[in-house]
Amino acid sequence: MPTRDLTMTDFEETVLAPGITLVDFWAAWCGPCRMFAPIYDAASETHGDITFAKVDTEANRDLAGAMQITSIPTLMVFRDDVLVFSQAGALPAPALESLIEQVRALDMDEIRAHIAQEGDDPAAD
């Protein structure tokens, strides 16, 4: 499945959707972004059940700011309405494949329980 370009208009709807969504924050002038692009695109073709999206940080500065992007490329992974991974830097293909498999293996009920517990913990504030 080809990657989707996201803007402020459709970002939230896309990442809140059921399933796994990877979002690559990038810019045309960024060398590491250009090196990561073919790896990301190849993974999107291999994993048709996952949404692969891109945010051009130059064209969508408001969205990049809202997501606190300070370095590019930054990869964020959402699963079932939960941000489960965020990291700056280009990943090599094997690392991206490993990340996808780890996200597939997550117990989302356990993660939601952990998030709820942290929300109830006054020490976490």
From TrEMBL:
Bilayer-spanning residue ranges: none
Organism expressing this protein natively: Microbacterium oryzae
InterPro entries per the UniProt record, alphabetical: Thioredoxin, Thioredoxin-like_sf, Thioredoxin_CS, Thioredoxin_domain
Protein name as it appears in the record: Thioredoxin
Top-level taxon: Bacteria
One example GO MF annotation: protein-disulfide reductase activity
Keyword terms, alphabetized: Disulfide bond, Electron transport, Redox-active center, Transport
Family: Belongs to the thioredoxin family.
NCBIfam families xrefs: thioredoxin
One CC-aspect GO term: cytosol
Presence of the UniProt keyword Transcription regulation in the record: no
One Pfam family of this chain: Thioredoxin
Domain Thioredoxin span(s) in chain numbering: 1-105
Gene3D superfamilies registered for this protein in UniProt: Glutaredoxin
